[in-house]
Amino acid sequence: MKNVPRIFLGNDICTGMIIPASRDISHYLGRVMRCDTFLGFGDGVEYNAKISSDGKTITIGAKTDHADTACDVTLMFAPIRHTDDLLNMATQLGTFAFQPVITEHTVANHINWARMEKIVIEASEQSNRNSVPQILPSKKFSDIDLSRVVFADERATRGLELQTTARGAKYIFVGPEGGFSETEFAAFDAAGAVGISLGKTILRAELAAAIAISRVVL
């Protein structure tokens, strides 16, 4: 079966619209994929679409019956050196939105967020979802409502017995490379946040995020 390109066209598209084609899209369809029809998506909906022969405009056709594969989970995370890998994997798992949080042990303070936006768009196109997760402005740990949070609790590696799943949770929190501080653990406990075990081994933060999501939504 022919591999039909899927391209994110923005969240304000609908059947019958004619929109400008970016240079990147025109090059990709004309020079790489060598086709003029593709699947365009945005805001949870997928459409049949066609680029003009001169590569300058795109016509949005009828909706397809493909349902969005995204879930309604927001991933709270401390920026890390491999934030790109974390966002890529979490987008493929269906994450609805990303909330960067500055924790006590956060060391990656200079993230190229424009590049991160491109990464989640590409991951959305590749993973068959009809929406692109939003990357929200960073917040301080102290500004987060922890009462609604399920968090990856690395105290399980020290022998603390914890549940391993939390089906239906809407907010998942994973820490940085150095883990959460004791003060942050105390804040989680005081707020009634639910800690889940990801196993007895210490995981890289990007892998911990993927496993935590899988234990909530899969």
Main sheet attributes: strand count, strand direction, barrel closure = 7 strands, parallel
Radius of gyration: 20 Å
At the third CATH level, what is the topology name of the largest domain?
Alpha/beta knot
Task: Let me know the number of strands.
Answer: 12
Name given to the CATH homologous superfamily of the largest domain = SPOUT methyltransferase, trefoil knot domain
Q: Give the percentage of residues in beta strands.
A: 15-25%
Ranges where pLDDT stays below 50 over 5 or more residues in a row are: none
Helical segment count: 5
In total, how many domains does the architecture comprise?
Answer: 2
Please provide a written account of the structure.
The structure is a single chain. This protein is an alpha/beta fold. The chain is built from 5 helices and 12 strands. It has helices spanning 23-33, 83-92, 113-126, 182-191, 205-217; strands spanning 6-8, 18-20, 37-42, 45-51, 57-63, 74-77, 97-102, 134-135, 139-140, 149-152, 171-174, 194-196. Strands 6, 7, 8, 9, 10, 11 and 12 form a 7-stranded parallel sheet that branches. The protein has a 5-stranded mixed sheet with strand order 1-3-4-5-2. The chain is elongated and about 60 Å long.
Summary, kept brief:
The chain is an alpha/beta fold.
Keyword list:
218 residues, alpha/beta, Ribosomal Protein L25, Chain P, Alpha/beta knot, five-stranded mixed sheet, 5 helices, 12 strands
